[in-house]
Amino acid sequence: MESTSTPKAKKSSRCAFEGCNARVVKIIGDCRYCQHKFCGTHRLPECHVCPNLATCKQASFERNSNKLLNEKCVKLKV
């Protein structure tokens, strides 16, 4: 009896950046915005020319804006 099972496709553990064949960084190599996996060199959205870079910048701007608006400087009372 012959086995007709097809070989399982391996998950790619290489950088998704075109022309880069480096290994993916396990924890920090995942891009939140385009869902691809990258090496240490291309892990930042600016480095791998993320298609959702505008979304990334807008989210960072809003996060920083909210943080600054919620903080207050209070004068010490003597």
Automatic annotation (TrEMBL):
InterPro entries: AN1-like_Znf, Znf_AN1. Pfam families: zf-AN1. Signal peptide: none annotated. Keywords: Metal-binding, Zinc, Zinc-finger. SUPFAM superfamilies: AN1-like Zinc finger. GO terms for molecular function: zinc ion binding. PROSITE patterns: ZF_AN1. Residues 9-58 form the AN1-type domain. This is AN1-type domain-containing protein. It comes from Neocallimastix californiae. The lineage of its organism: Eukaryota, Fungi, Fungi incertae sedis, Chytridiomycota, Chytridiomycota incertae sedis.
